[in-house]
Amino acid sequence: MSISIEEFSARCLLNAEETEALRSILRDENIMKMAEHIAQCCFYPAERGEIPEYPESKELSQAWFAACYLGAGAAEQHYASKGIPREIMIESMSDLAIWLRNSKRNYNVIGLCNARPWEASIFHGNVLRFGRLECNYQHFYEFEPICDDQGNVLLKKGDAVINMHIPEDGPMDIGECRKSMERMRAFFSEYRKDYDWKGFLCESWLLDSQLRQMLPENSNIIKFQDMGYHFDLSENEDTIFRVFGTRDPETVENPTTLQRNMLAFIKSGGVFRRGVLFIPR
Q1: In this structure, is the dihedral angle defined by the CA atoms of residues 82, 84, 172 and 262, taken in order, positive or negative?
Q2: CA–CA distances in Å: residue 215 to residues 109, 275, 277
Q3: Has residue 1 got a pLDDT over 80?
Q4: Rounded CA gap, 187 and 183, in Å?
């Protein structure tokens, strides 16, 4: 089942430039051969298969964009099979525009240069969007136990959680984050009654406790870190890309406060980490 370019563009919140780029890509036979192969492996099946191996190129990024379009009809079936309302599917698929713009900003390509398996997960209904935040359809905790101040275990390896993600398309407004979590709670209560989740979990570069040295106390990022139990994990190379993109951090024009403080941190030999936040149910 296919959908029109106009419907796909509206569903994924594509702008005029992205829509026109897609039209052009769909006319390129060589790119579309790759796109069809990618869609057959990663979008059409009930579960994503192995990602086809192609040499990295602008055309491959464009082919992944086209594969998302080809897979939009199958997404309807994937969401329906999980009993997920169509309006949540439409909201979730808007994630594509985030990564198209990330690719344009960093590589000057209207395509998917990053987040390719991620978009396949979105189209399969394995990652859902609820306002400001996204979450997995299901996820099981894999780190050391989290305990309260009295030593009682709140979360242990293998426990089910609502695993949240923070899209890069807006400010970290705490009120909006709370609204997202309430919507997630309502969704799992109605559509996943079998899912015995213990709380909300988030793993992100934004949860690096070292960011407290680089942000004001009233920062929404710090407020988000303070919403529950929080700890740091291993080193994280993704932080610099998330904040500076492909640019040399020292060449950024009109840097934000965070960028200036991060650059000073990097020059001092600092190493960024990932952090984890757990908010009990």
Answers
A1: positive
A2: 32, 16, 18
A3: no
A4: 6
Name the pTM for this structure: 0.93
Best CA proximity match to 147, nearest among 9, 239, 280, 51: 280
pLDDT value of residue 247: 87
DSSP secondary structure letters along 134-191: EEESSEE--SS-EE-TT--EEE-TT-EEEEEE--SSS---HHHHHHHHHHHHHHHHHH
Element (H, E) at 277: strand 273-280
Cα three-residue angle 167-93-188, rounded to 5 degrees: 80
Q: Facing residues of 276 across strands? A: 203, 231
Q: Any idea which residue has 């993109």 for tokens? A: 245
Residue type, 96: L
Residues 6+ apart with CB under 8 A from 45: none
Paired tokens of 196: 């015995």
Q: Is 47 exposed, middle or buried (0-12, 13-18, 19+ CB in 10 A)?
A: exposed
Q: How far apart are CA 82 and CA 150, in angstroms?
A: 39
Digit-coded pLDDT (tens) for 251-270: 988 898 899 999 999 999 99
Taking only the tens place, the pLDDT of each residue in 198-210 is: 999 999 999 999 9
The two structure tokens encoding residue 200? 């909300």
What residues contact 186, with CB distance under 8 A and at least 6 apart?
Answer: none
Residue the block writes with tokens 């029109």: 4
- For the packed helices 72-82 and 116-123, what is the interaxial angle rounded to 10 degrees? 60
What single-letter amino acid sits at 114? N
Tokens linked to 204: 């992100």
